[in-house]
Amino acid sequence: MTNQIRDVTLFSRAYREKGHLKLAILCAATMLLGSCGKPAPQGGGNPAGPGQPQEVHLIWNAGQNQWKVKYNNGSEQPPASAKIVLPEGTGPTMFTVDIAGKQAAFKDPGGLTVWENSKSDPPGSTQILGPIITKQGKMVFYDLNRGSPVMIYYSLNLDNGETIDPIIDNRGGG
User: Domains of the chain, with CATH numbers?
Assistant: First the structure.
């Protein structure tokens, strides 16, 4: 509120100097009333810092004739159980996804589909920005991890028609 009072004071002083006192009072009152009843910003008004960049490796296991997902330096997992957790209070996090072991590429456009909470809901999320496909064929997108905790289900769609479906557990609050 202190910053808002300072802004209103400066604003009204500028109008008063130009002889528009009534307009200055009206604008100052509008600015003060507009902020009444709103929740105070979390984190002292500062946004959460960015999360650690995440690497997602899609690995074709020819011996088992199936895809595996490996997050960062972790172990290979089946896509349905491959889940990465973004801790509460973590800000926007960059994900870089690559493909290994099979000649395939991400669909462009259409390489990423996301759902919040359940794949039975219509696709879409305000948590995910992107993706873009780099010249090296990697997919890059950002997870904002804001607001309430939410499970993000995502499909990585390949140009050969295959999809790989890992999970992001957004703990929120970023």
Answer: 2-38 (no CATH), 54-170 (2.60.40)
